[in-house]
């Protein structure tokens, strides 16, 4: 069961409690809501309580989504789970748009300024802004969770080679690559890439084998772009036939397989580029940091017969994973990074020149764009109750983005703030 975070009167983390107990404390006036997301209460009177059980924060970093889980190692209980959606692609697109506008202005018949690139160097450990945002997002939530609960250790999914080198510093050559979990990472990547189905017949929930699209006997390689998944009958039927001959009667399927095989490894590269930067950030928190491989995560998840999700992957990271995880009635909080607004002073037209005036005030009637609000409209055409993210207007007539739609023209006097904007949105 998903727990509620509890703070004492000095904002010191106590043991998380169940929703029923939290509701009783709130109804009896013994506690107040401290944070809406993640839901946290703060006691109104100091209490004598034994030191809470140590908890472990587990992280499964991803390119688009990162799984987060708080686990009690002694009891095996999954205390809290969340999935954090990154905005790296949005940052990349915004930077490319800005660069295009600047290049356009420089190339027109205007006052010329030479492009600056030869006088710029990148410091050691430099990361692209789209990658850096992923690291910062995770670090932000690590610090939030450590301030709300008694987290004493962190587990991060990292490459399997690092663990082997820690255990055996003299490891080298083929030994270094072929440990006890050799092949797990490649297979897991292929399962995700091909959606856990046979590439040739489309069957799911059957044993799948790694298959070479271009047979090795015909010059095919072991590169990821030449590997796919096939059920046993399809694999045996294809044997060492070229894929063009095997699928000569299904040109659409052949085209699909070839296009899927060439899918870029951008997501894998993003995780690969940020893993050590994230590791150093986690070490800087002062907590003990355990690392585990993707193969070990899959092994732990398969042993406990859990489905494939980001938050359950996070709960299974590392050797510290309890023999039996208690995950019943846990519903992960969905977190999406939205940023803190744009630094751009005004919008530009298609030629890159200003088309609007400078920014107005960030605060209107006590609200900021991104605040989570509840609006109870009692009269007019929009009578009803709305919960969502607000977009402010200087006129005081706001827009509210709910889970289903955007409601426009809600007066500020109907709005009540339930969560101050912090760069993320939740559901």
Q: SSE order, as H and E?
A: EHEEEEEHHEHHHEEHHHHEHHEEEEEEE
Subunit arrangement of the protein = single chain
* Total number of helices: 12
**Structural class label:** alpha+beta
- What average pLDDT do the residues reach? 86
Distance between the termini: 17 Å
The counted number of beta strands is: 17
Query: What percent of residues adopt helix (DSSP H or I)?
Result: 25-40%
Question: Per DSSP, what share of the residues sits in E-state strands of 2 or more residues?
Answer: 15-25%
Name the shape in a single word.
globular
**Spatial order of strands in the largest sheet:** 10-7-4-5-6-11-17
| Biggest sheet details | 7 strands, mixed
Number of domain units: 3
Report Rg. Answer: 26 Å
Q: Stretches where pLDDT falls below 50 for ≥5 residues?
A: 160-182
Would you kindly provide a written description of the structure presented here, covering whatever features stand out?
- Residues 160-182 have low confidence and may be disordered.
- This protein starts with a strand and ends with a strand.
- Helix 2 packs antiparallel against helix 3 and helix 3 (129-148) packs across helix 10.
- A 7-stranded mixed β-sheet has the order 10-7-4-5-6-11-17. Strands 15-14-13-12-16 form a 5-stranded antiparallel β-sheet, with no helix packed on it.
- It has 3 domains: 5-43; 53-105 and 128-357, no CATH class; 372-426.
- It has helices at residues 19-27, 88-107, 129-148, 160-167, 173-177, 184-193, 232-238, 243-246, 251-261, 266-283, 294-303, 310-315; strands at residues 5-7, 31-35, 40-43, 55-60, 65-72, 77-85, 151-157, 208-212, 227-231, 288-292, 333-337, 372-377, 384-391, 397-401, 406-411, 415-419, 424-426.
- It is globular.
- It is α+β, with helices and mostly antiparallel strands.
- The chain contains 12 helices and 17 strands.
- The longest helix is centred in the N-terminal third of the chain and has 20 residues, at 88-107.
- Helices cover 30% and strands 22% of the residues.
